[in-house]
Structure formats: C-alpha cells, structure tokens
C-alpha cells in the first residue's frame, strides 16, 4: 500500500497489528459491561447476605452505571486534550483498587459507594477504545472496525451474567470482584505491551476544537449525533430493563438455577452476536441509518411480543423468542449508532464517545430503580419499559436523525 492510498492511520498497520489492536481494544471495551453485569446472577445471594431488599440490590447496579457515566464525561474530553493512553491507564488502575474494595465491602451501603468508584474506573475502557478506533479509521473501514468493537460492547452485557453464573458455581459472590480486579490488571498489562498512542499532538489543539466548550458545542449542535445518541440511550435502557429484571425473574419466578439462567443469557448473547456482525456489512451496503430503520422496528416487535405472550400465559416459552429478537435488534443497532455518532467528529472523538456512553449509562441507571418499583411477578413491567424504549428510539430516528438527510459515509 502506497502513501497515496492511505486514507487513515489504521491503513498503515499490518494485518497482524490491526487484529491485535482491535482485540486489545475489545477487551478494554468489555471491562465496563463486565464490571456492571458480572454479578447479576448473585443478586439473590447479595440480598440474603446483607438481609436487604430487591430495590436496594438493584440500586447497586444503578450506582455502577452512574459512576460509569460520570467517568466517561471526565475521561473522554481529557483523552482529546492530553492523549488516549494516560487517562486509560490511570482510570483502569482506579478500577483495580475499587474492585478489591467491593470484594471486601462490609455492608450494602459500602458496596454501593464503591461500585460508583468502580464504574468510574471502568469508564475509560469503552470511551477510549471507541475514540482510538475513530483515530485509526474512517469511512466504511470505520463502520467495519466499530462493528467488531460493538461485538464486545453489545455482547458483554449479555455474556457477563452467563460467566457470572458459571463462576458462582465455584466462587462466593465476592469472588466475582476479585475476578474483575484480575481482568483490569490484565487490561493494564496489554495496554502497556500493545497499544500505541493514536492521537498525535497536532490533533489535540485544533483551532475551534481545542477547548472543552468548543468540543461540546461541535458535538451537541450536530443533529445526527443528538438523534443517534437518543437512539443509543433508548436501546440501552430497554436492554437494561432486561438485565436488571432477568436474574430475579428467571430464578425466583420461573425457578431457574444459576446455570439455567446462564443458558437463557447465552441464547441472547448469540442473538446479539449475530446482530452486531450483520450490522457492518448491512451498513456498508445500505447505509447505517437504514439499518437502524429496520432494527428499531424490530425492537418494538420484540418488546410487544414479550407483553402480549405473557398476558396470554405462555410463560417462559413466550418469553425467550421475543427476548432473543430484541437482543438481535440491539446488536444490529449499536455499530450503526456508533458509526453515525463518530463519523463527523474525528477532532473530538473522545468527547463524542463520552457523551454517547454517558447518556447510555445514565438512562440505563435510571431504568433499574424504575423496574425496582414493581414487584417482579411476571415479565410485563420489563416488557412495557422495553417497548417504551423501542418507541423512543424509532421516534428519534425519524424525527431527529431523518435518514433521508444523512450524508453517505464513503
């Protein structure tokens, strides 16, 4: 490849280096979702050990997501100003210390507070990984690379509880947080060995984009970014309604064991996997905005079926297929949301990624206590919240993004 054919820095990487970089970035992006969701199967054990309520346990989940959201708002713009690697290493080190603290927490209040810090430390992985991909790639290569990254970002929230349920077979629930600490240490080592700085100094002080205010203005005045950010937050909120409810719903209402619970999550993980890997090719062929037109419609169909089939009394047989459909639509949506959000913001990729992720996590964090207001006796409250989120995503696509007005990504 000659210099004349290079269109982005990632083109200069060898195939082996490109694959290695994307794998490490994938592990980085997975740290946040695993931090949030690995202990979902342990909710009944946490509730029993601390003699607390369902709502109090679910609030520990909200604490993590809110810490994660705030961390992204700090780390993303900072990485635009001083580079990607330093904020990444510092935040991940904070995660290690917080994970050890959570593993030793003496009560539910301490656990919740430490989960905020843990979420803050985990935030760097996702936001900086997305920014690094934007630093390296553009055009259709950006869509393809983000679909690989979205494979992890999308599947990790579903796969983490599966792994957690397996680990609970050999570990106490506190052991899950020692595992998270080890994961973060591994990520730090991989960063030091394989990741190079992707944001050159001359791009950190671009006229009109150098201050925090200018970066936020550039992003927040972009109609397409605002629209897809609402879509991303909506679909994350819908998925989080499922994540916050499913442990208690499947184990306490339907009587599944932790391994049976993990099997249902595994099925949904496969659906997300298929969705994310279909998104890249479909978006490159028809446009990310038109893939979103399909995926947001499928969100509404899946959520509606959850409610209707539960009212029909079909139980678990009526729950799993529409859950899998919703998970597929979630996976199909995420790479398209990220592509449209980042494509026009190379100069403030960290800021754009942080706003996107922070909004996702803030909405997700608000969903958990809303779900906690309802007694978990059936799937209807979860399905209704998922349906509302699907409707919001669809409305944002057609009223704010306006697919016909989105420029093609070459």
Automatic annotation (TrEMBL):
InterPro entries: Efflux_drug-R_Bcr/CmlA (IPR004812), MFS (IPR011701), MFS_dom (IPR020846), MFS_trans_sf (IPR036259), Sugar_transporter_CS (IPR005829). One of its GO terms (biological process) is xenobiotic detoxification by transmembrane export across the plasma membrane. One of its GO terms (cellular component) is plasma membrane. Signal peptide: none annotated. It is a multi-pass membrane protein. It is found in: Cell membrane. GO terms for molecular function: xenobiotic transmembrane transporter activity. It holds the Pfam family MFS_1. Keywords: Cell membrane, Membrane, Transmembrane, Transmembrane helix, Transport. Gene3D superfamilies: Multidrug resistance protein D. The chain crosses the membrane at residues 21-43, 55-75, 87-104, 116-137, 149-169, 175-195, 224-244, 256-276, 288-317, 355-374, 380-401. Residues 18-407 form the Major facilitator superfamily (MFS) profile domain. NCBIfam families: efflux_Bcr_CflA (TIGR00710). Belongs to the major facilitator superfamily. Bcr/CmlA family. PANTHER family: MAJOR FACILITATOR SUPERFAMILY, POLYAMINE TRANSPORTER 2-RELATED. This is Multidrug effflux MFS transporter. It comes from Agrococcus sediminis.
């Amino acid at each position: 490849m000659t210099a004349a054919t290079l269109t982005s820095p990632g083109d200069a990487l060898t195939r082996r280096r490109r694959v290695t970089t994307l794998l490490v970035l994938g592990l980085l992006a997975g740290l946040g979702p695993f931090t949030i969701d690995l202990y979902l199967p342990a909710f009944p054990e946490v509730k029993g050990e601390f003699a607390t309520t369902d709502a109090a346990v679910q609030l520990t989940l909200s604490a993590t997501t809110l810490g994660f959201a705030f961390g992204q708002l700090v780390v993303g713009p900072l990485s635009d100003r001083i580079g990607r690697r330093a904020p990444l290493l510092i935040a991940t080190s904070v995660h290690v210390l917080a994970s050890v603290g959570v593993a030793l927490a003496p009560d539910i209040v301490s656990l919740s507070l430490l989960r905020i810090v843990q979420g803050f430390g985990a935030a760097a992985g996702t936001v900086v990984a997305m920014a690094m991909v934007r630093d390296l790639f553009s055009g259709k290569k950006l869509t393809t690379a983000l679909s690989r990254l979205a494979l992890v970002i999308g599947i990790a929230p579903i796969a983490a509880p599966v792994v957690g349920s397996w680990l609970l077979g050999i570990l106490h629930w506190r052991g899950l947080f020692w595992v998270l600490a080890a994961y973060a240490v591994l990520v730090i080592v991989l960063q030091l060995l394989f990741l190079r700085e992707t944001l050159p100094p001359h791009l950190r002080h671009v006229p009109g984009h150098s201050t925090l205010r200018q970066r936020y203005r550039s992003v927040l005045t972009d109609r397409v970014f605002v629209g897809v950010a609402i879509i991303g937050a909506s679909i994350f909120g819908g998925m989080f309604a499922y994540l916050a409810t499913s442990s208690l719903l499947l184990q306490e209402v339907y009587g599944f064991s932790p391994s049976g619970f993990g099997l249902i999550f595994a099925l949904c993980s496969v659906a997300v996997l298929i969705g994310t890997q279909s998104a890249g090719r479909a978006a490159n062929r028809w446009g990310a905005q038109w893939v979103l037109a399909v995926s947001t419609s499928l969100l509404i169909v899946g959520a509606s079926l959850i409610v209707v089939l539960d009212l029909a009394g079909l139980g678990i047989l009526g729950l799993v297929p529409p859950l899998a459909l919703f998970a597929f639509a979630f996976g199909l949506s995420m790479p398209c949301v990220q592509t449209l959000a980042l494509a026009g913001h190379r100069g403030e990729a960290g800021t754009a990624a942080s706003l996107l992720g922070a909004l996702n996590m803030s909405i997700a964090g608000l969903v958990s206590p809303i779900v906690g207001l309802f007694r978990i006796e059936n799937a209807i409250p979860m399905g209704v919240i998922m349906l509302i989120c699907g409707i919001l995503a669809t409305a944002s696509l057609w009223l704010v993004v306006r697919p016909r007005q989105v420029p093609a990504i070459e």
